[in-house]
Design brief:
single chain, mainly alpha, Ferritin, disordered C terminus
């Protein structure tokens, strides 16, 4: 794995690990970020991560739309952009309706910025490989985050949002895995 893919893998592990740690410290639903929100630690953590994840997918997708060397990668990247805009809007609508502000997560924000900067610096096959490998790891971590919210979250609206969004994430993972298989064939043919 190269630099960007390693960063995304590390982020995915951090993301899911944070969700588990937060949930284990929460014996009962308590306010995690603001007393007015009345969210459990699981819900609060889910919001913090989902609130940054979709914009990251849009930003990295826009890069890959321009820099991807194959039509398959550019098409996948375009899907990431257009499918995550409604996800951001749906989550924001829930937060606005409940008068909740997403908790700040400077660690994740910094990780996303580093991943995007790494992708910006790469070109050609290295970019393709790191973007696609990173997407596989990201989608795995994201699926785990959404599954965890569905199983352990306490806010009905957030759980429903996760339920409705998870099939899209799983589809994105399958598509990313197909890109990996396709790029493996291309790489093998070049040897």
């Amino acid at each position: 794995m190269k630099k960007a893919a390693c960063l995304i893998f590390a982020f995915s592990a951090l993301t899911f690990g944070t969700a588990i740690a937060d949930a284990q410290t929460a014996d009962a639903p308590t306010a995690a970020s603001a007393p007015a929100s009345q969210l459990s630690a699981v819900d609060d953590n889910f919001i913090a991560q989902a609130n940054l994840g979709a914009p990251f997918q849009i930003d990295s997708g826009r890069l890959a739309e321009k820099k991807g060397t194959t039509l398959g990668i550019r098409d996948y990247a375009h899907l990431m952009v257009v499918s995550h805009i409604p996800v951001v809007n749906a989550l924001n609508a829930i937060l606005q309706r409940k008068n909740i502000t997403a908790p700040p997560n400077t660690l994740l924000h910094g990780a996303y910025n580093a991943m995007v900067a790494s992708l910006e610096a790469e070109r050609g096959i290295a970019f393709d490989r790191d973007y696609v490998d990173g997407q596989v790891e990201y989608q795995k971590g994201n699926a785990a985050l959404f599954q965890y919210e569905i199983q352990n979250g306490t806010d009905a609206d957030l759980k429903e949002f996760a339920r409705q969004t998870l099939p899209k994430i799983e589809d994105h993972l399958h598509r990313a895995l197909a890109l990996v298989k396709g790029s493996d064939r291309i790489t093998a043919a070049r040897r």
